[in-house]
Write a structure and sequence with these properties.
This protein is mainly beta. It has one domain. Strands 2, 4, 7, 9, 10, 12, 13, 15, 17, 19 and 21 form an 11-stranded parallel beta sheet that branches. A 7-stranded parallel beta sheet has the order 8-3-20-18-16-14-11, with no helix packed on it. The longest helix has 9 residues.
Amino acid sequence: MVQMEVALNPPLIPPAPISVMAPVSLQGSYILNAYDNCKCSCTTTGSGSHQVTACLPRAGQPVNACATSAHAIYTQNSVGVIGNSGNTITSFGSDPTQGTTTTVGPSVQGVNPWPNSLNINNLINQYKAGASIPNYTCTGTQNLTTTPATYKDCGTQSSQQFGTYPTGLPLEPAIGSYTSVTEYIPGSVHLTSAASGSGILIVDGDLDINGGLNWYGLILVRGKVSFTGGAGASTNLYGAILAGDDVNATNQPQSDNFGGSINFSYDVCALNRIGGGSPPQLLATHEIMY
């Protein structure tokens, strides 16, 4: 007889709304809010150099619930910013180019060694075991040993829905009011025309998004992430992005199909609830004589 010891996977809580191993490039009219949306309600007034953001505890939260927040960006490399129309909301400051691993700032840069708990390859292998795979036609082959790595191409996918996106945000949605899934895309993909959903979206390649995004949970990407226009809902992401390559946020001129700015809001409730039930991890096996 064999006895097995197993444990359920704990929630994955990245340390920032954008956590990425490679450099981060920000430009355009972006908003990165690192206050936990579960506990804090943030209101921004004014514009330009006179813009002021106040974050207060939500009803039922302790008075010091908003005393600290996550960093806006957590990266093994550096953060570059083009222009001054973006807005970073965090208790650590407003300039995303300040932070280092030794100096507290809104971004943490030069993280070395990268935490093993955020190992992209291990996390993808862990979560894809219990994921569904969309019916895409992906071409090419994956080779992770080349520099740069090569990925399958899963093409352009329009108006994709992965589970259902919660209603009533930014308040915490009621359990059962939406469907959370774990979705595995086995290569690079271009999502356009307001992709939406909740849970864990795993992209085993590069992720390119324009024309809008509405996501509640975690976006886990092996390669680079590019957002060219937010559109869609006023907030495009409640949760966090964790990626192995670079993140590039751009704001293109508005047109009939694309454009707008991106808006990310860190949300621990969304991260705690993610997934469609990934299988437990096997910790040990023991042979028992009888």
